[in-house]
Amino acid sequence: MEVIPPIVLYILVDFSVYLIITLSLNMEAGYAGLPQFGRVLSVITGALVAGAIPGRILALLYGYPHGAEYASYEFNYRIVNELNIILEQSPLLSIGVFLLTLIMAMMLGAAVGYVTSRPAIRLKEAYLGITLLAMGDVVMLISLYYSPIIGGTTGVMVPDPFRWVGPYRFTAATLVLLTLSIVVLIVVERLTKSPFGRALRAMRDSEVAITVYGRDIARLRTYALIVGASIAALGGALYTFYTGGCIASTYTRLTWTFWPWAFMMLGGTGNNVGVVLGVLLFVIVKTFIVTYRGVLAPYVPFDPVWLEYTFVGMAIILIAMFRPQGIIPERPIFTIARKKIERIFTTLETPEEIRA
Amino acid sequence: MLPSIAIAKAVAYADSIALMAAGITLIYMCTRTFNFAHASFVTWGLYVVYAMTMLQGGSPYYYLPLAFLFVGVLGVAVYMLVIGPLMRRGASPTTLMMTTLGVDLVLLSTIQMFADFLTRTYRLYARRVVLEVYDFNTLGIPGITYVSLIIVVVLIAAIHWFMVKTKFGTAMRATIENPDLSSVLGINPNVVYIASWFIGGGLAGLGGGIASLAISGDPTIGSRIIVSMFASSIVGGLYSVYGSVLGGLLIGLTEYLGIMLLSTQLGGWILTYRPVIPLIAMAITLLIYPRGLAGINWGKALLRIKSLGGRTWK
After folding, report:
1. Alpha-carbon distance A56 to A60, whole Å?
2. Which residues does A247 contact at the CB level (< 8 Å), separation at least 6?
3. What is the CA angle B260-B261-B262, rounded to 5?
4. pLDDT below 50 — which residues of chain A?
5. What are the angstrom distances between the C-alpha of B28 and each of B35, B187, B196?
6. Is A258 close to B105, i.e. CB distance below 8 A?
């Protein structure tokens, strides 16, 4: 029983998760100009943390198997069921586990971001893009085939920190996700307007110029990648908590790297508000295609679900060709209020003797 | 050690990867576009051969030229409709890369629809393409091994002849070196770019057609092996078609045979990690020698190897 219709919940969840990830991508690709084709790497890092660690900590605390056998499909669902009963009775423990996992996900995400920054300070353009893409693929493959982490191809269940809410579990979880995504939006917006964000834009537009002004490009890139990766890891962990399960094959480069790119390009590369709009539009259209594909099915000789790919692909091509700046173009950043600027100018223009 | 059939299959697979990588490199050299759509190009090549063999009958080999032509024309269409206009507007390499990804998604959806169409209309198992049964067999080795080797050798010779001996090839090399200067001399760079997309796309289609006989295919085969193609291209140095062919052969063989050798030593579990091998090869190349195989000065390297044994002091 839910108060909000499921389709709205579905849209809101997808919106929140993709908003977090697309904002992090916008910071690296839109502001810093890095060809981040390995977004899935940090998303999967967050998912790995959420899938592997909170359950193990709880299992350790309550005396269940917590080693490699935790992730085994024979034991995992039994252990997690027991843990969920414990969590259901203890809201405080649930919230604690939830927050702790998010913090750990962000920390590990930051570490992964640091690792990706090592090739990023040396390589450029296509080389860097392919390297990042390859790194994401390797981590996905290893977590898919090495079962002791998150159960490999069978996946694991994740202890549910929202269960104590009762029948409104999905609504509550959705609202938490939405709130966190708005927090991320505010943080990223502040960060990109800060001197750091402006330095990133300057680096994207002219590396020579920013070097002349005394900024270290290698350091700027490293920071951008660390912050972006830790935000994306947060998104991955949240998604895993929401779905209550974690399986590596969900985290393909198509859904977690290329789709965020499409969302970002539609909304407006280098504009966080544009990204919000882009993600919202895409998620709504995607959901409608998936929901109403049955209506179309009798008229076409194929499964209408493929139209989703056509739609995203066409959107990328058409945006790149006809509106490369996106729906809401990037705007110059005003750091202080206009009135204040005017006041400074008047003081500058007034002759010395009058000012005194 | 390894059964000869495995080596034969590995050679055929490596040949197909080499052709695909040559296409990626050619397109990158001419138009500075790192082509993600190559994944779907390859898959379309595979499906052209599959659909024609199933519907028209005969040997799959008859349809290899058709796969080359079909995907070559597809490549020209992609260039004329999308990449060309973007290049004239001065789009950045990252934008071009991203746009080819959009093209790839559209083409992937058309392949999926085509596979659904084949399944529903002609009752074919279009989601699991196996054409091995249509291949001939000589001396216990599948025919595709001989044919693919001959195709690679002949094509590389043809490309070399085309680039060095013909007037158009010279124009092409000039445009790769310096587009502005060559257009001053009356070369139309647009024609060169179209040619590069035709040949590059055609090589992808041909590689896909060969792959249909060497491995089993499905609509996502392209996006699974595209990392191998990129890796071959980068190992080859990204600025030389010959280097990419060499890189493709190297990656294809290590991937196919290396993992089999490892599995006999370490056990079967390692087989699932096969896609990691091209990535490792690529990482090593980028870390140690980013200019790739084509960037190595072979004469100098040989001298150095020779001198290792002889004189050590001056």
Report:
1. 6
2. A150, A151, A153, A154, A155, A156
3. 90
4. 1
5. 7, 19, 9
6. yes
Tokens of A301: 């000789």
Nearest CA to CA, how far is A286 from chain B (Å)?
14
Q: Tell me the CA end-to-end span of chain A in Å, nearest whole number.
A: 72
Is A354 contained in some domain?
Answer: no
d(CA A333, CA B262): 56
Residue at A199 is within a domain: yes
Domains of chain A: total: 1
Distance CA A155, CA A121 (A): 35
Contact B100, B34 (CB under 8 A): yes
pLDDT of A353 reads 61
Q: Is A315 on the interface with B (CB under 8 A)?
A: yes
Two structure tokens written together for B288: 């140690």
Asked if B104's CB is within 8 angstroms of A313's CB, the reply is: yes
**Does any domain span residue A259?**
yes
Nearest to B93 among A126, A145, A262 (CB): A126
Mutate to test the interface with A, among B109, B234, B282 (most CBs of A within 10 A): B109
**C-beta of residue A252 within 8 angstroms of C-beta of residue A139:** no
Give residue A163's domain range: 6-327
Q: Look at residue A352 and tell me if it is in a domain.
A: no
Q: Is A73 exposed, middle or buried (0-12, 13-18, 19+ CB in 10 A)?
A: middle
Question: In this structure, what are the phi and psi dihedrals at residue B142, rounded to the nearest 5 degrees?
Answer: -60, 145
Question: CATH number of the domain that A224 lies in?
Answer: 1.10.3470
- Give the pLDDT confidence score for residue B246 in this predicted structure: 87
Q: SS in 3 state form for B44-63?
A: HHHHHHHHHHHHHCCCHHHH
SS3 B74: helix
> pTM for the full model?
0.85
With CB atoms and an 8 Å threshold, state whether A313 touches B109: yes
pLDDT of residue B1: 59
Vertex A33 angle, CA A27 and A37, to 5°: 80
Could you report how far apart the first and last alpha carbons of chain B are, in Å?
45
Q: Is B267 left (phi over 0), alpha (psi -120 to 50) or beta?
A: left
Under-70 pLDDT residues of chain B: 1-2, 298, 304-314
Which residues face A157 on adjacent strands?
A245
Cα B30 to Cα A125: distance, rounded to the nearest angstrom: 16
Q: Is A302 on the interface with B (CB under 8 A)?
A: yes
Which candidate, A28, A279, A231, places its Cα nearest to that of A132?
A: A28
| Kind plus residue range of the DSSP H or E element containing B196 | helix B189-214
pLDDT digits (tens, 9 = 90+) for B44-54: 999 998 988 88
Neighbours of A281 (CB within 10 A): 15
